[in-house]
Specification:
By secondary structure, the protein is an alpha+beta fold. The chain has eight helices and ten strands. A four-stranded antiparallel sheet has the order 1-2-8-3, with helices on both faces. Strands 4-5 form a two-stranded antiparallel sheet. A two-stranded antiparallel sheet has the order 6-7.
Length: 232
């Protein structure tokens, strides 16, 4: 099976973006969180993305943004699972990486996915990681949700993109809990502020995404939607 057929299957299952990274691009992965730590026979990492409706950024209530995020997570996991089954039908071993599950890494005192979704996406040429720690894609900016699959198949990798973020630091300045002051995101400070139960409505919500809102590339480096909206 070649890269073209792999992507055709992924798109047929509902992905909006798909890219492939060779295993040699993960040399800097933290100990215990390298693709080979999950699948020893892994030769390629397939990253895919589904777009996150941009209109939710302008809502006065956190409910639509929260609901979209909570709905996209099982969608991504289902796409990854169905893709692995299709690969197995062709005699190729592949395993899904959970879209939104983390485990505690005591060596660095951070929560981590067993393989970083955003670093896999960057390695596969879907986009580049911005100062706000989010992946920015040319097509949809940071308005994407990510999934990944590890496979034993040796596939032709996609080229890695040039850096999109221009380090304007607008995200650093707007963060209400100063979680971006250092090069590495203060993960717990961000999560404690952004995620939790609304005391008035008793609804679990994602109440903050200011770093995403203010990013000049939150709709992509091409900024098609922004140009259409503003005429600039």
């Amino acid at each position: 099976m070649d890269s073209h057929k792999v992507k055709k299957i992924m798109y047929s299952l509902g992905a909006d973006l798909c890219g492939i990274a060779s295993i040699d691009r993960f040399a800097d992965a933290p100990a215990g969180y390298h693709p080979l730590d999950v699948l020893p026979a892994c030769k390629s990492v397939i990253s895919f993305a589904c777009r996150f409706p941009a209109a939710v950024l302008s809502c006065k209530t956190a409910v639509p943004y929260t609901r979209v995020r909570n709905s996209l997570t099982p969608k991504m996991d289902a796409i990854a699972l169905d893709f692995c089954i299709e690969m197995e039908k062709n005699g190729i071993a592949a395993i899904p990486i959970p879209t939104n599950e983390s485990q505690w890494d005591s060596s660095t005192e951070r929560w981590r996915s067993i393989v970083s979704q955003k670093h896999a996406a960057q390695a596969a040429g879907l986009g580049t990681i911005g100062r706000h720690s989010l992946l920015i894609t040319p097509e949809f900016g940071s308005m994407v949700w990510l999934g990944a699959v590890l496979t034993e198949a040796e596939l032709e990798p996609d080229p890695v993109l040039k850096k999109i973020c221009n380090d304007c630091n607008l995200c650093v300045e707007i963060c209400p809990v100063n979680a971006l002051e250092e090069p590495r995101l203060k993960q717990q400070a961000c999560w404690d502020h952004a995620f939790g139960e609304n005391k008035e409505t008793k609804y679990w919500e994602i109440s903050c995404h200011k770093c995403r809102d203010i990013c000049p590339y939150n709709l992509g480096s091409e900024n098609k939607m922004w140009k259409e909206k503003t005429g600039k």
